[in-house]
Amino acid sequence: MAPSLVKLSKISWEFNDANTRTLTHGYHPFHAKFIPQIPRTIIEHLSKEGDIVLDPFCGSGTTLVEAHTLKRNTIGIDIAPIAALVSKVKTTFIDPNELEKAKNKLYEMIDTKKAKPVIPNFPNQNTWYNEKTLQELGVIWGQILTFEKKNSDIFDFFQVAFSSILKTVANRSEHWNWAFIGDNMLPKLNKYTNPNKYFNNTLERMISGMKDFQKAKTKNWTKVLKMNTKDISKNIKKKVDLIITSPPYCFAVDFNRYYRLSYYWFNWEIDKNRDVEIGARSKRAKKCGIDDYFSDMEICIKEFYQVLNKGGYCCFTLGNTKRDNKEINAVERTIEMCLKEGFQLVEHTYRELSKQSMAQKRIPKEAVLIFKK
Q1: pLDDT per position as a tens digit, 202-245
Q2: Please, is 250 exposed, middle or buried when counting C-beta atoms within 10 Å of its C-beta (0-12, 13-18, 19+)?
């Protein structure tokens, strides 16, 4: 066994006391996201500076941030527009001084009496938001839109900040779990929450994160592609050296519907994006749902093998889920599919999941799988 694999085999993958909100990692809440210590550890042991690291289900961009700061080139792929946006913003350097100026200009415009709310027409908007909250959100969003043609990077930065508060300032019920939003369960309590307070605090936190990112910034490149993971080889011509990802857990969540409030404000199509989401929770009632999930994953694994350099590693964190109280053994099926494709399994261990939301507690542990081509 290679020395790097020997070292990895001795690692405790829980990282229970680790700080997971360094650099730009705390920009936006993201359901069941990677903790940065996992990809960082793998990148340090299984790649070298200048290598290309691919995360084909990049989610909120955790792997991309860590790979960049370790002087690797990175490619992130995700078909969900919220994931592509957050990943792009977290890995795009903007001078913090420019962000401060833009933030001050934005609030000058928000504070003027001439600022008019821009509120898209979306379902149940007066159920999701108190009327005063809704109007104030509309004013913030209207002024953010003025940056769209002036500076697209700053516009995206403000858009992520806005998206990150949309659930925080929304109405909720007395007993509420934000996973309910994926099933469109509507809140029953109507209460004003000040969006300007949360938006300003979020911008301050994000700019602070960008200052940290500035210190860790390298000359290496990062690409974020909004596309279907099943089409990787059509869009990536140069082979990659390392793949790290946490693929969708079968029927665990509807990512696109979970962020429905952001999709409403940004005029993104929820159902269209959900339909192409692999393993979406809304597909769990389909008789062929499990077969469809593994069929999609098999296509993805073939793509991984095709774009990975010989001798490179492909790494997963993945957990088993349930349907009708019967376990869906995604870990063993993933191993079978990877071995069938030609990968060699070189590490198989588990990590306990201790810090979870109520929606995640049905998944007590996840596997760390490392394959070599």
Answers
A1: 999 999 999 999 999 899 999 999 999 999 999 998 999 999 99
A2: buried
